[in-house]
């Protein structure tokens, strides 16, 4: 019925009635709220004061009630009676229901006290009642008291406040209503009437309708927009259908997934056919874009949360700033497809473009491109480039100065493999086909050649030596079984089979080097002089101590830096495997090393540097706690000594704990329990390692044993100095000749 009555009423009248109704409602609510708060404020103040008086009165009654001193109770009541706000009061002993004393001023306080009344104020229209327990000695309850306070003064103050609030609210509502009515009729109602008339004409098909509003405010702008709309709406209606169909055809023939989302982050409007395929759902309308891009974990993943924050800000960005803002959006996401156990990753490249409306971002279009094939191709190309780069780096190192060292290594490897075959074939005819001495000798050489293969970056050759080393390691653990002729024969056959692979790998490596060299097989003979001539001259010189012999030996010597050519590059990689960082500093590169030592020095230096990396240098966290540089330092130096060059390998690591090393040797059965041993000698024992398991860097227990064996064969000795926490220094120096006449 109200709807029928309002149909013929103008918008001005409706606005006036609505304004008055709203203001009346607001005024009533405001009046009620203000009066309620005023009443509560007055009562709260009264309650606080009443509680304080009641607490003081209860405290003053503690002793009189405890001793049942009626006269003292009467005295306290007379003191309370002086308070003009007190209407009446009564005091009760603990178990009695009748008061022992009371005050009466037009009210009765002698009714029994309910336990629920104690501790709070009970309000009536004209009074407030407060009851308290009286506590005596030992916190015992000795009685109760009730005080009734008058609310006459508070009621009078509230009546005056309520009258003032009423008139203030009325005047405020009346003034506001008058201003709103005048403004609405002159500034809103009249222009809207003209606009509504024009809208009815446009709705009837009269697209030439114009609205004459001369103001420049929002209504004037609305009138101008209305006039432009009447001119363009017909043309846009015709073009909209055609554009929609064209857009649908375009989307469906694109290889990209195209969707658009609104301010709420939900997909709205047309999507491409590829979108349904990539996002694995036929119905995309209304789906949250964050779940489409980030999957079920969109609520917890950091990347998804960052995208949500970007999405919420996207609709407040000016169109001119979109390019820089779009750089903050994710460039790529990876979707998971398939069932558990058969999941496939689908990488998508993302591009975000604004869809503008009225000069603002209305929606954001997402273009998602499947780049899985592109990534596979890039990965394949990167792998090929990495392998090519490794090979080229190895060749560059050889061409830059390591060729002669590499040639000697290949020659030495072939000689040692041939000697291994000879030892095995010779022992096969004896009573004991294979003994531990042969195993240890082969093990020492194989371990050294494997390390040098790693230094030359020859993975195939390194793997062949690794297989042979694994076979030898198994024999070392079960050495007692070699006493059986059949077991020893089988072990020799197994080693021989591994040696064939090593021999083939050495030969292929040699052929690869010849094929990669610009001068072919002649690269194997490149040296300052022909090796055969040099060796012949050295043999002819013998042990003579004349100037010619010394010159020939200097000619055969090699610079110290040559032995470190590949180790310096590989040391950081070795450290990285251990989760460490190191820097290898080489000094005295030009010092000449005699032929006997230079032939084995590369392997010796490999053992010592790797030993420093594996056992000396600490992880970065430990070094930081010890106040050291996070990058460990290893120094390899050579200098001329009285009887020949002295070589030093020193690190700034943790140093050796010789006591722990001796205990480890006892645990491994290398030292008998109770036997006194020199820790400096135990370090060089074969089979000793402080690691429980071997890896590519340490754990075989062969490194330092091999170092001492090699330098002894060359006429040199090795010893070390260590300090716990401050590093270890290995010194290789020539064994001085015995004194004349000895």
Give an overview of the whole structure.
55% of the residues lie in helices and 15% in strands. Helix 11 packs across helix 14 (485-516). By secondary structure, it is of the alpha+beta class. The N and C termini lie far apart (138 Å). The strands form 4 sheets. The protein has a 5-stranded antiparallel beta sheet with strand order 2-1-5-4-3. Strands 11-13-14-16-15 form a 5-stranded mixed beta sheet, with helices on one face. Residues 427-432 have low confidence and may be disordered. The protein has helices at 2-6, 11-60, 62-66, 70-81, 152-203, 218-252, 273-278, 289-294, 302-314, 322-326, 372-427, 436-455, 459-477, 485-516, 531-541, 547-556, 560-563, 567-577, 595-616, 620-625, 658-667, 679-682, 703-713; strands spanning 86-93, 101-103, 121-123, 127-135, 141-150, 257-261, 332-337, 344-357, 360-370, 558-559, 582-587, 592-593, 632-640, 645-651, 716-722, 728-734. The protein has 4 domains: 34-160, PAS domain (Beta-Lactamase); 256-370, PAS domain (Beta-Lactamase, 2-Layer Sandwich); 381-526, Four Helix Bundle (Hemerythrin (Met), subunit A) (Up-down Bundle); 557-734, 2-Layer Sandwich (Heat Shock Protein 90), CATH 3.30.565. The chain is built from 23 helices and 16 strands. A hairpin with a 5-residue loop joins strand 4 and strand 5 (141-150).
The largest pleated sheet is described as: 5 strands, antiparallel
Going by helix content, strand content and strand pairing, the class is alpha+beta
Distance between the termini: 138 Å
- Overall geometry: elongated
- Count the domains: 4
Helix content: 40-55%
Strand order of the largest sheet: 2-1-5-4-3
- Per CATH, the architecture of the largest domain is 2-Layer Sandwich
Name of the CATH first level of the largest domain = Alpha Beta
Cα-based radius of gyration, to the nearest Å: 50 Å
Say which CATH homologous superfamily of the largest domain is assigned: Histidine kinase-like ATPase, C-terminal domain
